[in-house]
Amino acid sequence: MALVNEHYLKLPGSYLFSDIAKKVNTFKVTHPKQDVIRLGIGDVTQPLPDAVIKAMHKAVDEMAIKETFRGYGPEQGYSFLIDAIIKNDFANRGIYLDPSEVFINDGAKSDTGNIGDILRHDNSVGVTDPIYPVYIDSNVMAGRAGVLEDGKWSNIVYIPCLSENDFVPQLPDRRIDILYLCYPNNPTGTTLSKTELKKWVNYALENDTLILFDAAYEAYIQDPDVPHSIYEIKGAKKVAIEFRSFSKTAGFTGVRCGYTIVPKELNATTLTGERIPLNKLWNRHQCTKFNGTSYITQRAAEAVYSPEGKEQVKEIINYYMTNAKIMKQGIEATGLKVFGGDNAPYLWVKTPNGMPSWKFFEQLLYEANVVGTPGVGFGPSGEGYLRLTAFGAREDCVEAMRRLKNWIK
Ligand code: PLP
Questions:
Q1: 193: CA distance to ligand 1 center in Å?
Q2: Domains 14-43+309-408 and 53-305 fall in the same CATH topology
Q3: Does 177 contact ligand 1 (Cβ within 6 A)?
Q4: What percent of the chain has pLDDT above 70?
Q5: Which of the four, 136, 186, 214, 398, has the lowest number of CB atoms within 10 Å?
């Protein structure tokens, strides 16, 4: 008889986005003539850059010829892509990485979800709240989260990020073994300055805490004071793993490619106090459980760093960030309070008069026919907020703001 991992049974029944889809479908059935604008799910809408498409075509052709055909590649990724990443994403910022510290993957979700495999089940876990749900759910699956009580897991330390504290997480008064940070942040669209991030790196150095730093939205940073990588902070290589993704940078949500940096200096400890390099463990994890990202995909990602690729990516980011600007101005003009959107493609809207997130979501859907994401779906501190994404088509963003303005009036 096979026994199930009962921790999975603790997870709440359905996933946030399927709940939203159900509500939107009900609305569409009952209001078939209404045109709904979806600014809920964080998926991109612009096609892949031309340089990426060309590189993929070329790679496909190589696969058709005996001499250039590729079978299994290195589990950690091809050196042509690793070298391009090190040179363009890190060396340019004065960060020096060894190729063996970079692990190419099929997107940041897999590694942010799987990283816990190399960590014991009884580590304490901290998250900023609200947060990308994968961090918490994957810890629930591993048995690290405890039990769910009033929307909070008993063994997770929630660090609230609210308008009251300018969305800057305060250092906890206790030590935490593993801490998730995501900057620029999904869902709030806010960032941490170098000074603020430094406080967390110092906290981790003092408390022997492992920081799991998700920089999936790094490409959206506009402000020079906002760090692109946690390794811009001195000492961070001793305490942090960083996750990156080509999904939002270059429209790879359907292509699937990202990477994880596990510095060689980074250690964690056994119960007997022996220090173990996490790079070695993660390499073992990947060699056993992952067979590499496809050659075609890695060539596509490499093209993001070509001169044409860089230009085209910049144009796409500018397009979404212009959407964000239009939306932020539009929301502010209604008198609603809105945060984020300056260094990230997310706008975090405070609901009027403290209205619950789901109620505001439904009113927005039924009265303005615009779909957002209820903030509470990202954690207890998201209650009273709604997330809108700037990933839509320009005309949809403009029309959504027109509807919002008429509705709020
Ligand atoms: N991390 C954050 C914060 C995200 O918002 C997302 C996707 O929305 C991911 C990771 C996953 O991205 P990927 O498409 O690379 O798996």
A1: 21
A2: no
A3: no
A4: 100
A5: 398
